[in-house]
Amino acid sequence: MPQPPAQQRLHAMLDLLRQQIAQQPDGACRQPRFDTQLFRTSGTRLADYLRELESNVSQLTAADSDVARRQWLAEKVLDQIAALQRECDSQQLRVKRERPRIDSRQKKREEYQGFEQRLLAMIQQREQHLARAETLSVQQQLIREVDQLQERLARCRAAIYKLELQFTSR
Fold first, then answer.
1. pLDDT tens-place string over residues 85-104
2. Which residues form a coiled coil (predicted)?
3. Can you tell me the mean pLDDT for 147-164?
4. Which end of the chain is more exposed for a tag (fewer CB within 10 A), N or C?
């Protein structure tokens, strides 16, 4: 039995979309590309979204579901097709705009450098308080705090040094 013209157009649109997605660099994204109401898939690749769309199309063309469900699913399929087409059309722009992924060692190094900056600020603050301290007990407490912060700073710098060695030994 031949397919109705609407189904033929739907399958033609789906075939065209498959071809467009096949031509795209289909890398995973850091975040989902679409709203969860549009696509339920947990993947972030275009192929993941295409699989969900194909599943919805096969449910739509099955004759055993009620009319209200089919109408809702037809609208969803059209929205999914439009969204995937827009995404394919904007891929060339997106590749240029997205930041390259930072590997875990680079991220860790930046985190440690942030710790180092905060520790230096804390040491400077305690030393300023020490210069203004009037009683001996306050001075001794601030000296202990500065010593503790210096030790933490030394450990932090050692960790940064180890990461730097990993970068140079790549």
1. 888 877 766 655 455 555 77
2. 132-166
3. 93
4. N
